[in-house]
Fold:
Amino acid sequence: MIKRSRPLGLFSLLALTLSLSISACGSSSSSSTNASDTGVNASSPTVTVLMGTAPDSLDPALGASTQSYEATWLTYTGLVTYAHASGSAGAQLIPGLASALPSISSDGKTYTFTLRKGLEYSNGEPVKASDFAFTLERAIKLGWGNKQFLTGYIAGAEAYDEGKAHSISGITANDTTGLITVKLNAPFGPFLNVLAFPAAGLVPASTPMKPLPNDPPAGVGPYEIAHVVPNQSFEMAGNPHWKSEAIAGIPGGAAKVDVKIVTNNQSAAEQVLGNSADVFDWNDSVPGTLLPQVHAQAAARYAQEPTVSTEFFFLNTQAKPFSSQLAREAVNYAIDRRALSRLDGGQLTPACYLLPIGMPGHPSGPCPYGDPNTAPNTAKAKELITQSGMAGTSVDVWSEPHPPHKEYADYYASVLNAIGLKATVKIVAAAQYPATIGNIKNVNPQTGWIAFSQDFPNPVDFYQLLDAESISPTENHNLSQVNDPHIQSELAALSPVPSSKLSTVVPKWEALDEYTAQKAYLAVLGYDEAPKFTSERINFGALVFHPVYGNDWSTLTLK
Amino acid sequence: MTLRPGTSPWRLAWRRLARSRATLAFAGLFLVVVLLCLLAPVYAHRVAHTGPNENHITETIKVGGKSEEVTSPTGVPIGPTWHSRFFLGADANGRDVAVRVLYGGRNSLEIGAVATLITMLLAILIGTFAGYFGGVTDGVLSRLLDVIWAFPPVLLGVALGVTLAVGGLDLGVFKLTSGSLLLPAFIVGVVFVPYVARPLRGQVLSLRSREFVDAARVQGHGHLRILAEELLPNLTSTIVVFIPLMLANAILLEAGLSYLGAGVQDPNPSWGTMLAEGVHLTPGAIHLVLVPGLMLVAAVLGINVFGDGLRDALDSRT
Structure:
């Protein structure tokens, strides 16, 4: 998923004022609890979680941002879900509403699940097997941001999306036996990961076929979302119909969660440091100016967790100057990743490969255009720009205003100017940024910043960014507009490999990622670290930092 | 004091102005700010040896014989060194704050001056035509001013700035690219037109029925000649009083728009963009907001107090 961030400015100040006044009212309970897995109820304590950016939607059929998933994976459990564990253990799929992981046909195209018996939605309705097809149809119809994972692989899903069919022909369900069968057009290795998205978390068939961001539908999970105030706050209350014993591996939760949107990360960090809020947004970074204070006063409740995400500058291969490989190589030689890490408060690990550490297929070899932890080779870069014949070419550098992304753009423009290009910076509001840079038709950006976090632990996810089939006139995901036959043939061969057998193809992914770096299709900056930062009253060690969804609120307990 | 007959109102105003030491002191303060900003290239090349947009993030410098990093590994920039390099410290990108604040001042003052020029020219044209011709002309022009006036200036400026920030302005013969300083100047200039045009229109409305205008008409003078020779001279003192007021407002609005990302575009500095860049690094790097903030206060305070003094000096009742 392309990481979203937040606007800064007047509205941040407003949000700051609001959040300060709200926290001053003191909503948090001071009662303590143990970590028992009894589920959240009216007497459970309340924990205040701060988010730097509001979720794009709290309707699971629409939400596609990290902030949305963080809430919806605890409220909309799918047939399969992820283990609630930190590190690589958290990347393991476990049965969710299905009684076991599915049986998969030998050709990898048919998945058969059996629904658990006796499940109820948060509104008390019984869960039926046929709700699964409805759930996916709703996500497709409402335009979920990752619906291509459904329409591209499930038989009949594309026809349904195009209005040529009334239902998805590839899904059959039997409400009596609870049997659900999904047929694919072609084998797709990470398909089970796709079904673990909150968008595939079952909702009742009685749910209106319209967006419900402020009154999200009923679901199955330890929590239900309540009292949504758009762009300000929402609550994660206990699901009264959740049976903790029903699904092994999903914690029932021990605290209600009050989520508040605080767009100023300085203010948010100060609130957590001062214990007036409980959890800092892992998508944000603690400002470098505050870090010494955090280390001095809160070392026991602050940690930098590695995330499976990559920050990079895309280089449009279909437009000058980056249509020239020499020019792209020059950028890779010229960028000082150490400088970019400093701009990110030291929370960026300099690197050169698209696949980050923690993702199977991450290459361990040296970078083709210099060690990212040493000084750049500006002289070589200048020479390459001269050789490419692109010297003096105008380049627009795109980014969004949220620190340090604007600072990245300023730095990057100065580098491009230093090596002989003529760079100007274009900053677009965070909310419009993905749509703007994804618009080839009207904007066709030459280069700019972007960050990408894993949607699921499979390298196929990252290679959407270089897949020629991802190029589209609007909402383009392949921002470098790479159409490389070698990448396409490798993706065709590697995509069908199930996530459970990824280890067998790791060398091939490594080779592909090394090839990508060699071709300099991107200028990778590095891999993000995320702050796990809580107030004193939170049991810091018990809080799971999940590799896909970040802070796992169902593991929040008070000391 | 006894005045000799024939002393012109301008000479009289000058005498009053010269007597007001506070007015002259603040005018001097403003002139010092302007002079410092005009000398920005000299300071950058001869003293600081860096440009306003040059990044020095991973560099180290000698301060008092000690080697110091321009920005720390966690991104905290160096504070004022009181030496030629990074005299007022660095920003997050390792850029010299003293150099940027002077170049930023040039941009802010240039935009303020051009915006004031645009405001005054458009306001004089619209105000005098609407007041003099009346009827349909007045109706159309006044409604146009009402439309602009209906929006709060900051909101209108942000709306225009954000809309034009990416694609610029293209009106056929009149084009402004998105990174051009003329773009925020144009936006700020247009936003303030009603604030000057309205009072001018009102003054022309009262002047157009005066005897000297009737006399000019009887003599067969055309409309434009009456406007230029009879009405405009009577508006001069009002216009002169408005200029510093509008200049101060324009500088402030430009800073506000740039702070919100709708004014001067990155990486070009202005006092507003510098404040925006520095605000998320406070209190650890307080110099990032103090330096541009103080320059902004000095410039606006200087021009405002001077404007007040000028108004008093031109007011025959004082």
Notes: The mean pLDDT of chain A is 89. Chain A touches chain B at residues 8-10, 264-266, 287-292, 336, 338-339, 341-346, 375, 401, 403-404, 406-407, 409-411, 413-415, 417, 424-429, 436, 443 (CB under 8 Å). DSSP finds 16 helices and 18 strands in chain A.
